[in-house]
Amino acid sequence: MIRLYNTLTRQKEEFRPLHEGKVGMYSCGPTVYWFAHIGNMRSFLFADVLRRTLELNGYEVKQVMNITDVGHLTGDMDDGEDKMIVAMKREGKTAYEIAEFYTAAFKKDLETLNIKPANIYPKATDHIAEQIDMIQTLEKNGFTYQTSDGVYFDTSKLADYGRLSGQKSEEKKAGARVEMGKKRNTTDFALWKLSPSIGSGHQPHERLMEWSSPWGIGFPGWHIECSAMSLKYLDVPFDIHTGGVDHIAVHHENEIAQTMGAEGVLEANIWMHNEFLTVDDGKMSKSLGNLFTVDEIVAKGYDPLAYRYFVLGGHYRSKLNFTFEALDAAQNALHKLREMIRSWTVSGKIGCADLESEFLAALNDDLGTPQALAVVWKLVDEDLPTEVKAKTLLWMDRVLGLNLEEYLGHTLNIPEQIQQLVQEREAVRKQKDWIRSDELRDQIQDFGYVVEDTDQGPQVKTL
Ligand code: AMP
Ligand code: ZN
After folding, report:
1. Does 123 contact ligand 1 (Cβ within 6 A)?
2. Which CATH number is 19-274 given?
3. Which ligand is nearest to the CA of 248?
4. Which among 8, 31, 415, 432 is least buried, having the fewest CB atoms inside 10 angstroms?
């Protein structure tokens, strides 16, 4: 039995798929006007662990992840600076070129962190017609009104608007200063925004990402893409919807409202949200200099899968604080596992059933990855033939995704060039030239190897 925490009901629920043996899953994807940071990647790692856990239980998972390449609306309240235009000015490129570049960078990050690709990555700009269609349905069903600057969803028309966050419209008003503009209710949100520059003879301007619509030239609101694309690729209702906790109060609330208004059903049965990654116990931000990308972590000499291991060490519903000390500890643990499995030459036919079921039980209890990792170390200490351990560890790695199979039985083949650098470093260490010794250590690291000084002499490992 798999139990998952459903934000909608505020409790762990037994997972019951809508279609036997199959799971439909939609994961809110990235905005693509800048590189994803390691906090964003926590969200995608969480969705990956969920998907792999379902697969380990024998389900066939269809995962859809949107790419938000329309950049006009940035703030949750349809406000804020337009990040796509900021990026266009910064880089002197068209919106499409910006989106293409950062989408490719995002997919590379997924691969680097061994996150399985989704089955489909629909782009918002490829689905303008579907979004217009859905807005028209909402209009027909009486959920919209038009103002001089766009078409809005009237949240007062939906009896249970706010059920996901449990916040009522008036509470939101009291809690936050909301720019009302031409909206009727504080929680109302844009479905279609009219371009500000409309005059006679104005044509949709591809460079600026605007399109013709029954309401005039403009662009879709941020939330409608997910309702329209999940309907197209998964049909509604589907099983599970994922995203970060910041999506609960506005984005997912509004997705639910749109799908309910247009299709008359709850978009997804289970809504799951990952907590935030913090850095030095605070928010990551560019101005504080503590916002890191996967590439930056790698450039500092870390194995990207050490970050994956670090994320597995926290439960997805708890805040996780990133520090380089914690990443060091994760990398050490990962190295230890890899070094161990090098001496386990083959994987047997039969694994350790007890520990396998303990591991699965941990994951099936709302993705208990810290407990699952504890079972891994229990296995390591167990007095069992190594082929049995190898079989079990590789089975576990189907969810952990640490690429352990690459290391099984593979003694390190250290290239000549690295061996020379190591010898040179030993020589300067004897002369107590620590500066040169550190330089050589860095050079070795640039090639993807680390030297550890032990009582038996230098030990070389891969990063
Ligand atoms: P964005 O590209 O800004 O839409 O973010 C992509 C995903 O990352 C969303 O699901 C966010 O909820 C999530 N996210 C953003 N910041 C963090 C963070 N610091 N920790 C974890 N998840 C985050
Ligand atoms: Zn979304």
Report:
1. no
2. 3.40.50.620
3. 1
4. 432
In terms of DSSP bridges, do strands 11-14 and 3-6 run parallel, antiparallel, or are they unpaired?
antiparallel
What's the pLDDT tens digit per position in 30-65? 999 889 999 999 999 999 999 999 999 999 999 999
If you take atom 14 of ligand 1, which residue's CA is the nearest one? Answer: 40
> Is the domain 278-406 a CATH 1.20.120.640 member?
yes
Structure confidence by residue, pLDDT tens digits, 374-393: 999 999 999 999 999 999 99
Distance separating alpha carbons of residues 242 and 268, to the nearest angstrom: 10
Q: Which of 40, 272, 310 to mutate to test the pocket of ligand 1 (most atoms within 8 A of CB)?
A: 40
Cα(250) to centroid(ligand 1), Å: 14
Per-residue pLDDT reduced to its tens digit, 338-379: 989 988 888 889 999 999 999 999 999 999 999 999 999 999
User: Atom 9 (ligand 1): residue with closest C-alpha?
Assistant: 244
The Å distance, Cα 117 to ligand 2 centre, comes to 17
Asked whether 376 and 337 are in contact (CB, 8 A), the reply is yes
Q: Identify the residue whose tokens are 């050589």.
A: 440
